[in-house]
Write a structure and sequence with these properties.
18% strand, binds flavin-adenine dinucleotide, alpha/beta, 3 domains, five-stranded parallel sheet, Flavocytochrome C3, Chain A, domain 1, Methane Monooxygenase Hydroxylase, Chain G, domain 1, five-stranded mixed sheet, single chain, FAD/NAD(P)-binding domain
């Protein structure tokens, strides 16, 4: 049997792919409607416009990735995007006819279904999986069963399952931050894989979104494209003080601007009064405002949105541990480099999931380790910190703006208290953030504000004693 852990875009696509190829597959998920997929808004990046091509999409992705993308992976995904776009439609999924433009993309290539693509896609994949008689069971992954470098099953809160192969599709760890755009993504799959001996990589790269309400609702980037303004409680339209592009500056620049205002003690609002036809063009946003009785001035914070790091894999999803696949946000293929290009993540999950049955029997080559810095991390038998303390600590020390002394302080706490998943992934992320003494992509160090070519390499972390 093949066990898939997680029921987001990656897990459900994989389950469908395996079921169609007549494998015995079972999905285990903490919550069928959990994770980021059901709340993803914008859409999927696909280079299918008349003036577009996989090569142009690859160029934009590499530019965003700030020198750390795996070029082979980038080209694989941008070429596969076209196939997956048509495959989804053949399966019956309907996209809206127009392609949207998003920040960092030089062409219109965001295939979407209104402004709730994630929810629509999730429902669609779930119903297809149920039609194919895929068993989907709510249970929580606790650990992986592994021996002699091979994974043999999983331990869940409802019992143990023997499996020939395990596919981790458990998402990232952005919910381990005080402000986050999704709930329940605590890096449990990544931590289990690391503890079982799999390598993880790029853990320092966390993407922050600049305009999120305090309860975690994402005010989509498109609103700023359509005239929404950032205002502080003194009435200042402050974005231009940080970047000449104002509200249209890149996400990481605006995230730092909003965070700096917060450090100054200023409250920040998104003013929607100049957005035309808000109700019609942004129905999900309008609905959110209406339900809470909010007007067109909405208090916002910056929030952890997407975690680039994860279990190191090749594009097939093979990890360094035989029989363990990782796909979607839990995986790190090198597609995103140091910064994710918007809408490339649903794409990554779809491609890895839908293609997995082609690779499930392949010889185990695993991801390549050469060219990266391999760091061994000692894991102690220790208690973990409670989730609220980790969220607070990550926000303070591992947030939008990082600094060496503060990271060291946090690492000193975590090195003796990483006995649960959210503490362990935070430990690995803080470790990587401390050794990356430069600023690159989504990782910003106030004590090393420049990009430094001697750090043009990925940090791969392995558990001490596992290699
Ligand atoms: C608000 C928001 C908007 C976004 N908008 C876009 C967008 O427009 N375009 C885009 O490309 N990306 C977007 N993203 C990012 C994208 O949604 C995610 O990267 C993607 O959905 C991840 O899919 P996944 O299947 O890998 O993981 P997820 O969808 O996060 O699913 C993880 C699954 O694992 C399960 N799980 C977790 N831990 C355990 C455990 N211990 N045991 C069992 N099961 C477990 C969860 O229940 C869940 O089913 C957005 C993210 C957010 C939060």
């Amino acid at each position: 049997m093949i066990v898939v852990i997680g029921s987001g875009v990656a897990g459900l696509s994989a389950a469908l792919s395996l079921a169609r190829a007549r494998y015995d597959v079972k999905v285990i998920t903490k919550s069928v409607t959990g994770g980021s997929t059901p709340i993803a808004k914008g859409g999927i990046a696909v280079p299918v416009g008349r003036d577009d091509s996989p090569e142009i999409h690859a160029h934009d992705t590499l530019k965003a990735g700030a020198g750390l993308c795996d070029e082979g992976a980038v080209r694989y995904f941008t070429h596969q995007a076209v196939k997956v776009y048509y495959q989804l439609q053949e399966m019956g999924f309907k996209f809206d006819p127009e392609l949207w433009l998003e920040g960092g993309h030089s062409r219109r290539r965001i295939a979407h279904r209104t402004d709730e693509t994630g929810a629509q896609l999730h429902r669609f994949l779930y119903h297809r999986a149920v039609e194919m008689d895929v068993r989907i069971v709510e249970a929580q992954l606790i650990s992986l069963k592994a021996s002699n470098g091979k994974v043999r099953g999983v331990v869940t809160d409802k019992g143990e399952i023997e499996a020939e192969k395990v596919v981790l599709a458990t998402g990232g760890y952005n919910s381990a931050f005080k402000f986050a755009t999704s709930k329940g993504n605590l890096g449990e799959g990544i931590a289990s894989a690391f503890l079982a001996g799999a390598a993880v990589a790029d853990m320092e790269f966390v993407q922050f979104h600049p305009t999120v309400t305090e309860d975690g609702f994402l005010m989509t980037e498109a609103l700023r494209g359509e005239g929404a303004k950032l205002i502080n409680d003194k009435g200042e339209r402050f974005a231009f003080a940080y970047d000449q592009r104002g509200e249209l500056a890149p996400r990481d620049v605006l995230a730092r601007a909003v965070y700096t205002e917060y450090l100054k003690g200023n409250e920040v609002f998104l003013d929607l009064s100049d957005v035309r036809e808000l109700d019609k063009r942004f129905p999900v946003v309008s609905d959110y405002l209406r339900k809470r009785g909010l007007g067109t001035r909405v208090k916002i914070v910056t929030a952890a949105h997407f975690t680039i790091g994860g279990v190191l894999t090749n594009v097939k999803g093979q990890t360094t541990l035989e029989n363990l696949f990782a796909i979607g946000e839990a995986a790190d293929t090198g597609l995103h480099g140091a910064n994710r290009l918007a809408s490339n993540s649903l794409l990554e999950g779809m491609v890895m999931g839908l293609n997995i049955s082609d690779f499930i029997e392949d010889d185990w080559t695993g991801p390549k380790l050469k060219g990266n810095d391999l760091i061994e991390i000692e894991v102690k038998q220790a208690e973990g910190l409670d989730l609220d303390s980790v969220k607070e600590g990550n926000w303070r020390h591992l947030g939008v703006i990082r600094e060496g002394k503060s990271l060291e302080e946090w690492l000193n706490v975590l090195k003796d208290r990483h006995g649960n998943a959210w503490s362990l992934v935070s430990y690995l992320a803080a470790y990587s953030a401390l050794v990356r003494r430069e600023s690159r992509g989504s990782h910003y160090r106030s004590d090393y504000p420049q990009q430094d070519d001697s750090f043009r390499k990925r940090f791969v972390l392995v558990r001490k004693g596992s290699v």
